[in-house]
Amino acid sequence: MALWRGSAYAGFLALAVGCVLLLEPQLPGSALRSLWSSLQLSPAPPGPGSPEGRLAAAWDALIVRPARRWRRVAVGVNACVDVVLSGVKLLEALGRSPGNGKDHTILHSRNDLEEAFVHFMGKGAAAERFFSDKEAFHDIAQTASELPGAQHYVGGNAALIGQKFAAYSDLKVVSSISDIPAGIPVHLELASMTNKELMRSIVHQVFPAVTSLGLNEQELLFLSQAASGPHSSLSSWNGIPDVGMVSDILFWILKEHGRSKSRASDLTRIHFHTLVYHILATVDGHWANQLAAVAAGARVAGTQACATDTIDASRVSLRAPREFMTSHSEAGSRIVINPNEPVAEWHREGISFHFTPVLVCKDPIRTVGLGDAISAEGLFYSEVHPHS
Q: If phi over 0 gives left and psi between -120 and 50 gives alpha, with beta otherwise, what is residue 239?
């Protein structure tokens, strides 16, 4: 999307990367509870004086709109219909019964779908995979759409982010990144993929042309694996992604592929989001109001998942690590999170990091498009320095 502010232009483009199939975009409460139990975490008592209540109040005090606001937003063409339903009920309707889980980079059959579903359900994680058989995919999608209780929503990165921004700005649709004038800030929202060659091409050819990047833990690790970045030997995250490792990869992306005096790249900002915490990493001198931006992104994760207008402390739980190291590639420093001061900040060679926990909805109502809402909210509260 491209964003215009007053008479000056600014830009934002939400791109969906790759052709993906997401038959179960909703992360069920049962999966979240299973993940939390496996991590042996227990919720604190809810209420205004609880860590959740104090953190939510601290966010409200921190979240202020930027001095220079986005006025117009151009959204890239990327839209679909999301069918939201129980994955278990869909498998039953397809004549499948639960078996062994197995990840598949490409889905070719109903059996592959079942195995991939079981695999990711066991991890309490959402996943997106390309389905190669057009007729089989059509049959599955038709069955899903007609199941009792199935809900239909607007889907697609650009459409969802545009829908979020529509409450704040004027909208314009563009067909490609080439339609945006030079010098306009551009945001790229990554999606799940399994093609390393495609990811390498995006890193080397697309990253230099975008200003801001949004991604989750699966996309971040795959990016590092595809482009031989830090911790790329790690096959998958073991539960909650380690903050120090995430920080190392974000630092590497901006140092190796972001803007510098010797590199012609526009990339200066990355918004990383995972279930229990968010990090905003920015090249110094290019962005402002990022403390409010990361807090706003985390706050909307809790309100949208629980379908509430404000954070209800009795319905959310603080699951983020209370202390962590800021790096594993170098000495780093130890951060201790205080719910009364929920945004931690650290710096590394001209790059600033802003970290905040997420108040995770205990029994989520709807998680479709949650990552897109997070990125849109973070962008809305961000202020890019003109001509930076």
A: left
Task: Identify each DSSP E strand in 91-193 by its residue range.
Answer: 106-107, 130-131, 151-155, 170-174, 187-189
Burial class (CB in 10 A: 0-12, 13-18, 19+), 106: middle
Residue type, 373: A
Hunting for tokens 């230099």 — which residue is that? 208
Q: Is residue 343 scored above 50 in pLDDT?
A: yes
Confidence of residue 25 (pLDDT cuts 50, 70, 90): very low
pLDDT score for 47: 54
* DSSP assignments along 1-69, one per residue: -EEEETTEE--------S--B-S--S--HHHHHHHHHHTT--PPPPSTTSHHHHHHHHHHHH----SS-
Asked if 112 is an active-site residue, the reply is no
Name the residue type at position 7: S
DSSP bridge pairs for 338: 341
Q: Which residue type, as a one-letter code, is found at position 319?
A: R
Q: Which residues of 204-213 are buried (b: 16+ CB within 10 A; e: fewer)?
A: eebbebbbbb
The beta-carbon contacts of 215-218 under 8 Å, at least 24 apart in sequence, are: 215/189, 215/190, 215/270, 215/271, 215/272, 215/273, 216/272, 216/273, 216/274, 216/371, 217/241, 217/246, 217/272, 217/274, 218/125, 218/127, 218/192
DSSP H helices in 124-156:
134-146
Q: Which of 112, 248, 312, 372 is catalytic?
A: 372
pLDDT tens, 108-166? Answer: 999 999 999 998 888 777 778 889 999 999 999 999 999 999 988 888 888 888 887 77
The pTM for the full model equals 0.80
- End-to-end Cα separation, the chain, in angstroms: 19
Q: Which tops the pLDDT comparison, 353 or 130?
A: 353
Residue 365 region by backbone torsions, left for phi larger than 0, else alpha for psi between -120 and 50, else beta: alpha
Q: What is the DSSP string of 330-372?
A: S---EEE-BTTB--EEEEETTEEEEEEE-EEESS-S--TTHHH
Question: pLDDT tens for residues 64-104?
Answer: 999 988 877 777 767 888 898 888 999 999 999 878 899 99
- Convert the pLDDT of each residue in 143-156 to its tens digit: 999 999 998 888 88
* Strand bridging mode 316-318 / 170-174: unpaired
